[in-house]
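Hey,

Quick one before I head out. I ran the complex with 2-phosphoglycolic acid overnight. Inputs first:
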Amino acid sequence: MAAKRTPFVAGNWKMHRTVAEALELVGALRDRIGSMEGVRVAVAPPFTAIHPVAQALRGSRIEVAGQNVHWEKQGAFTGEISCGMLVEAGATCVIVGHSERRQYFGETDETVNRRARAALEAGLTPIVCVGETLEEREANRTLEVVGRQVRGALAGLSAGDLAKVVIAYEPVWAIGTGRTATAAQAQEVHGAIRALLRELGGEVADRMPIQYGGSVKPENAAELMAQPDVDGALVGGASLQADSFGAIVKAALQ
Ligand code: PGA
């Protein structure tokens, strides 16, 4: 029997919100969902807003995540941020391997794996994103592509480390397009990911949250998260407004 998993809803702000705007948004989120129990919640602001946002959320249950991180601890890596820097700024989680990083910034399964390992070593929860393109789906390659991404991202991790990983299944064709996977499409892939996690880590697979991402909105969140292997959401556009993100977080409790 599947263990009961705490749902996890994270908001990926992408390249949106100045510090002033970020503080306004988390102020409103704190009021709405800051003390809600039974669901894990995180927001991922741009790097410049992580520290002030973490300060503003102190004492609430809302966590802060980075949108990316480098695997080295320090060095001549212009434009990069280390895990230690994220931790110091107040982050507890980090998104790795988002499809926009894969598409526009040359992220590979191997670099996703390095980032995930570094995050785990630093005590950050890695939110590992996987997902197929429309072309891959239409060629019936979804499970093959997602399987390769999951195996690649998690290569070499112990069962103990796997237990701390969060997977986000985000079909690329559903991101920012308004076109959501149906609940059945999401469940099919989530179920396949769960089976693969079981192969890789045994029973810890039952404790690992698998978020769905791609045009999640208050209107579709409850149905998606009602699927047996959909344990929360990674929300882009709808995480930029307190009303819609708050409603999605509440839907996770149903
Ligand atoms: P979206 O983005 O909700 O705007 O589709 C999701 C994501 O990229 O994480």
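Residues 183-201 form the longest helix (19 residues).

Talk tomorrow,
K.
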